[in-house]
Every structure is written in structure tokens, then in C-alpha cells.
Amino acid sequence: METNLTGIIAAPYTPFDENGEINLKIISKYADYLKKNGVSGAFVCGTTGEGLLMSIEERKAVAAEWMKHRDDQFKIIVHVGATSYKDASSLTRHACEIDADAFSAMGPLFLKPDHVDDLISYCQEIAQAGASKPFFYYHIPSVSGVNLPMVEFLNKAESKIPNLAGIKFTHNNMMEMQLCMNLNDKKWNILHGQDETLLAGLTLGAKGGVGSTYNYMAPLYIKIIEAYNNGDIESAANYQLLAAKFISYLIKYGGGVIGGKPLMKLVGVDCGQLRTPCRNNTSEDIKEFEKAIMALDLLQYFHQS
Ligand SMILES: CC(=O)N[C@@H]([C@@H](O)[C@H](O)[C@H](O)CO)[C@@H](O)CC(=O)C(=O)O
């Protein structure tokens, strides 16, 4: 199914209150902040959003809240992946009811498939629950543990999943990503998923990406895209290098989910703590991390809400 999701799409953190409950009232401010900073959509309840640490009802409530802020310049993709395809299908039906732009599921997390045909059967169950909406397979082997060949997946799934739109490709196998982007007259929408290599993705043909650091640093990535589109590859590479230096610190403080969530406070959108089993950084750690951000002179890209 055709879609045209492009630009910088944030994978939002799910705001939790001091009791660890979902904090829906923050989402309005969060959405305004993302829009003001040029973000073109939200990939809700994915890895960054701790979707798999939430109940199905909570996920539906969060997705419905984000939909209140959807507009033509700000699309909503709902991550529906779950351990059981029954739960994933229920989330899919809900994503259709609220009229989300698209939905996506990562590979089954428990008793993983070791053959593409089995992955396709699993995706078929989920995708058919939302047949009128585009479905993206969420390829994120580092989290799902499912690492099957994506070219074969697209080729075989084409006739079996009519609403397949493409892949959210969060993997460093850029050769495979390029091959996927060029199959069948470039029919698939392949969303780049690693913020540290956005520029490499653009040069290979990606038109947009989904990521965690786009939540608070979107203006830097927009500079990468603008410089690339203007043919100024040197500036684009320098902006990308800045993102890479930042991400090397982010990894030290737990990566995009654990390290990134407290940074939302810096932009005035307090998303609270992470849910167990994620370990929250101490306030000393967060201060050290913020110092590193200052030293890189990165705050200029952390626009306020
Ligand atoms: C493993 C992981 O968290 N990957 C992130 C990246 O944005 C990542 O945080 C970033 O590239 C920094 O390494 C996203 O792909 C996750 C994502 O889109 C999501 O939250 O669903």
C-alpha cells in the first residue's frame, strides 16, 4: 500500500507521572513542541515509548491522545507489536478506529521465527486486522532479536500482505536497506531508523527517518537534510558528526531510551521516569551528561517548548 511518510519523525517517550502512571496531559505540550521544531510525525509506543512495558489499555489511551494532535503535517504511526499477535491485532483495530495514518509491528519477541515465511505469517495476522491502513514491518534486531533477510521478506510478503507499505529499518546493514529501497521500482517506503547514520541513509535514498534523538534535537537533523538537499555534503557531514559525538555520550548513559528520556526536561517536556526493568540514571549522571552536551555546544539545537 502506498504511503509517503517523510522527514524527521520522532519516536516519543511515553510520559509517566510520579506514580508511574501514564501522564496524558503532557502530550499536548509535547506535540506542540515537536511541531514547532519541524518534526513531521510521531511513531507512538515503540521502543522509545516503552510500548512493550505498557498494558494494552494504556497503549490505546496514549495512541488516542496523540491522535488529537494529528494533522496533515504531523502524521501518527502507532506501534502495535506485542508478544501475542492477538494483542497486536487488538491494538491494530484500535489504531484503525482512531484513524491513525499507519501502524507497525516489530517481530515476535518470544519464540522467535527463524524463517521469513513464519515472520510473514505472523505479520499477516496483524496486518489483516487493519487492512485499510498501511502496515510497516519494524526491523529492529537489537531489540526484537529477529534478524531475517528483509529483501526476501518484502519479495515474499508483497502478495500476502496487501497493505504492506514498507519497513521501519533500524539496523546498520545499509547494504540491505539500499536493496530494499530499490526493489520493484522503489515501491516500498523504507524509514531510516538509526539517527547516527541519517546522512548515510539519505545518500542511499531514504526520504525520512524515525528516531529517539529527534524528540529533543530535531533542528540538528533538519540541518543535515537541508544541507544534503542543497548539495552541501561537507556541512551535512559536520552536522552528522555532531550527532554522532552526542550519541556516543548517549550510549554511555544508557542509549536512546534510558539516556534520552531525562533530556526531555531540558526542552520543557517532563516525561518522568522509565518503567522497570529500565534503570533510571541518577541525578548526578544526568548532570554529567548535560555538561557533555554543553561542551559540544549542542544546546542551540535543543529548542525550548
Ligand atoms: C535501539 C533504538 O533505541 N533505536 C532508536 C534510535 O533512534 C536510536 O535511539 C538512536 O539511533 C541512537 O542510537 C529508534 O530506532 C527507536 C525507535 O524508532 C522507536 O522508538 O521505536
From TrEMBL:
What Gene3D superfamilies has UniProt attached to this entry? Aldolase class I
- In which broad location class does this protein mainly occur, judging by the first location in its UniProt entry? cytoplasm
Q: Where in the cell is it found?
A: Cytoplasm
> What domain of life does the native source organism fall in?
Bacteria
Question: What Pfam families does the entry give?
Answer: DHDPS
| Catalytic residue positions | Y138, K168
User: Which SMART domains does the UniProt record give?
Assistant: DHDPS
Q: What is this protein called?
A: N-acetylneuraminate lyase
Protein's organism: Portibacter lacus
